[in-house]
Amino acid sequence: MLNELGVSYAVVGGVACVLYGVRRLTTDIDVILEKLSEETIELLVKYLKREGYKLPLYEALSALRDEGHFTVITEDGFRIDFKYARTSLDYESLERTVQLEIHGVRVILTRLEENIAAKIMVLESLKDLEDAVELMLIHYDTIDRKRLARLLGKDPINAIKELMIGIETEFKDIMSQEFILYLPMVKSKPSQDSQLLQRQLHLGLQHIET
Predict the structure, then answer these.
(1) How far, in Å, CA of 113 to CA of 136, rounded?
(2) pTM: predicted TM-score of the whole model, two decimal places
């Protein structure tokens, strides 16, 4: 569909991680788009409707004006999130891409370093950090570390460690309270799963550093 329209795009996020070898499940498909004309957006909405996806035209146009995103939910429960490029990392993700063919369809992915950088500096959740570390382990021999450091503005290992310290501090603060209170910066209360993820991240970082 995007290929037919000749739109510049890149698949990022969880699906890109899976295609780069990370073992995880996801029902979200994240796509960065170049900033489109209103005429192209109208065509895109028509293509989506032709394929059975429901998307009001005003939502896509509103997202364009706000430099935001719009979402399509498929009948089988997948969520496709289209985000217009806004940051320097977004534009680099569009400029440096990898092409794959999946079931006869050409799919354009952001490159490895841009995907890792987005996981670390944009998303910042424990699961996203786990994805970043696993990608760095899988592609240990081929990853461009200098480029990744340039995208992040710092050494990637130090960036991950700093974020983990912040997450661990929040978890400790919550655990020390008599009641779990709503905190805007904390998405969920600590669990055995999150503590296991932290241990796995520490082990992964140790492997990368050795």
Answers:
(1) 9
(2) 0.80
